[in-house]
Amino acid sequence: MKKTEQLLHRIDELQKETGIPRTIFAACPNSPTVIRASIQAAKRNNAPIYFAATLNQIDCDGGYTGMTQEDFVRTVRFECERVNFTGPCIVAIDHGGPWLKDKQRTEKWSVEDAMNGVKKSFEAAVLAGYDLIHVDPTVDINVPKGEIIDIHLVAARTVELIAHTEKFRKDHGIAPISYEVGTEEVHGGLADETTFDTFISDLKAGLKAVGLEDVWPCFIVGKVGTDLDTTLFDTEVAKTLTAKVRPLGSYIKGHYTDDVSNPQDYPLCGMGAANVGPEFTISEYRALCELEEVEKKFHAEGKVGVLSHMKETLLEEVHESHRWEKWLHEDEKTLDLHELTPERQDWIVATCCRYIWQQPRSLAARGFLYANLERLGMCPETVVLGRIERDMDKYFRAFNLIGLNDLL
Fold first, then answer.
1. In this structure, are residues 184 and 221 in contact, taking their beta carbons and an 8 Å threshold?
2. DSSP structure class, residue 27
3. Are 246 and 275 in contact (CB under 8 A)?
4. Under DSSP, is residue 323 helix (H, G, I), strand (E, B) or coil?
């Protein structure tokens, strides 16, 4: 049985035995620090860990983390070995589809080029040893603004990408992998039950037509109330969607779980897994800012020679990246980052730091900050990791995952 399905199957068995439902926690690996913190948190909680990596983060060109698929799998393995973590570790692509990679969208790639680019990324993931691929062709830059892509086209492209990946996998003698489909985004068209049902019907027929009726996604992404600007998980919608897909052998996957106000309800509603991403970038950013305040205090006391200017450097790196622009609200489109309200600027910088953590100036500022504090007996990296791990712990706890590895 595939690794992901095996874990889901065992969680189901345990629920029947103990009455305790569980939801798998998936972290977006948006920095080397988050990867390390995720594995340390999983080790301490004695729980599985799942990495959901976007093609912006990790891809053939290195993504903004600087890692290819092979680099990423190797890094995860090394970090597991470093703390002797032997529990389940799932490595997956998140939101794999045409124009979901910023480069494709800004350069306005053609349909053929965008689809071929995604296929190349999927091939690299299969060769690297990924366990799961989220197939998400729900964006089309040729669809007029304000309109939604035809759901039949979404299903057809989903089948095309799965069929290509399966042929490549079999041709190279690689073991079966798992799939996730759909999206919670409004542009994906799965926001209402009728379109959701149409997509499922088309997907079943399409896979059967290409001889892949035995290949069915273990996860289907559902719009369960959470998005970029909301944090309330809709339990009724989650239960309804779960009832639809469980007879098919699938589980509903939640996205945008960052800072959700009721995470304890996910397992109670039968949610198979949930992704958390930008929250941990913010955790990393906040920890570095706190350390910089300590550094300034020591500097005022004459104990630090040269300040790191950590926060200022991150602000300028984010600004020069221009990747913050896609997070602007409509009424902010004409404003520069420096012209936003302090609250909005702070949120955008904290969220968008993931794009620039590996830039030379960001790395140099962090190096200065760490060196200044280490010379005074502090362990700054441990402080940063601890802040991220603390914010991860609430999901391990709310999803009933603590100690699960002993039961697998």
1. yes
2. E
3. no
4. helix
Q: 312-333: string of b/e by CB count within 10 Å (b at 16+)?
A: ebbbbbbbeeebbeeeeeeebe
Distance in angstroms (rounded) separating the CA atoms of residues 298 and 281:
26
Structure tokens at 323: 């990747």
8 Å CB contact between 72 and 54: no
Average pLDDT per consecutive 10 residues, the chain (408 residues; last block may be shorter): 96 97 97 98 98 97 97 98 98 96 95 98 98 95 88 95 98 98 62 81 96 96 78 90 93 92 96 95 98 98 97 97 92 94 95 96 98 98 98 98 97
DSSP 3-state percent helix, strand, coil across the chain (nearest 5)? 55, 10, 35
Query: Which candidate, 119, 129, 197, 185, places its Cα nearest to that of 158?
Result: 119
Residues 6+ apart with CB under 8 A from 170: none
Q: What is the pTM of this model?
A: 0.94
